[in-house]
Amino acid sequence: MNFPTLKIGDLIPRYPIIQGGMAYKVSTAPLVSAVANAGGIGIIGATGMTVDELIAEIRKTRSMTRGIIGVNVMYAIRNFADLIAASIKEKIDVIFTGAGFSRDVFDWGREGRVPIVSIVSSARLAKMAEKLGAAAVVAESGDAGGHLGTERSTAEILPEIRSAVNIPVIAAGGIISGRDIADMVRMGADGVQMATRFVLSTECAVSDAFKQHYLKANADDVIVIKSPVGMPGRALRNTFTSLIEQGGAMLKPVECKKCLKVCSKEYCIIQALENSRIGLIDQGIVFAGKNVYKIKDILPVSKIFERLISEFKSA
Fold it and tell me: Per-residue pLDDT tens for 211-226?
């Protein structure tokens, strides 16, 4: 089996493998550039960043690669428009957006000549994105880590979305191996988005404690939690998720920055993500995909790509 050719606007990566844009500051320049250098598309997780922080991250990434790079910005955040505008001004290659649906972003992308990729979980939203001008859609299932738009599996939603649109469809959720990529391609995917696998790379900027929490996980540790964003989220069980389940004392920001358009204020999602990123695992949330427990090693991105390519060809 050969890899399909993934074309997003005028962009054609060597391999149709996209590294998911993980917030808060999980996918930054070292990881993003390494994926781009390996022949995939590296994505900066812009959610939670200020405009100045994002500009600095884009420029740093550009200095480390000549490959394809993009940003992922959640529609649910208040500075969504500002981050999109900054990304376009910095001539980012591609913009991914989900966790809500913006109509305006397609006009902004056209004006700035930057392709927009919508992250969707239904055929209805995929068709709407195509009509408005999306260059591609990510069919993200309930098998993914982080905030979820559906409880349904990739195997359920991918064929429906594929049959609903004529633009490229990128499968996401629970994909960790080359064999998984082959399965998605057989179901009609033009490419895949993978996030969890790339957390366990040497280039990912999270703490060692975060990575060890991944490595120690078993299937029963992967749970779905409530998020103040108003969407469920898939994460790994720890002390903090137990507090969420019990409705106990939550992590409150010292000073609320009102980063979300709508927030339940049950706890501060940005602080929870930052705590886990820097190693305070039991004081934060460790987002992870459904199949995280199947990953047993930490490798350089180049080695991850070599393994994915070998497994894909074998499949």
Answer: 999 999 999 999 998 8
Answer yes or no: is pLDDT of 248 > 90.
no
One DSSP character per residue, 67-129 reads SEEEEEEETTBTTHHHHHHHHHHTT-SEEEEESS--SHHHHHHHHHT--EEEEESSHHHHHHH
Q: Are residues 28 and 161 in the same domain?
A: yes
Tens of pLDDT along 59-111? 999 999 999 999 999 887 788 999 999 999 999 999 999 877 889 999 999 99
Tens-digit pLDDT profile for residues 137-180: 999 999 999 888 889 999 999 999 999 999 999 999 999 999 99
Assign 246 to helix, strand or coil.
helix
Range of the domain at 264: 208-292
Question: Which SS3 state, helix, strand or coil, does residue 264 take?
Answer: coil
188, 153: one domain: yes
Do 124 and 161 contact (CB within 8 A), yes or no?
no
Can you tell me the distance from the alpha carbon of 12 to that of 160, in angstroms, rounded to the nearest whole number? 25
- Note whether 44 and 162 are same-domain residues: yes
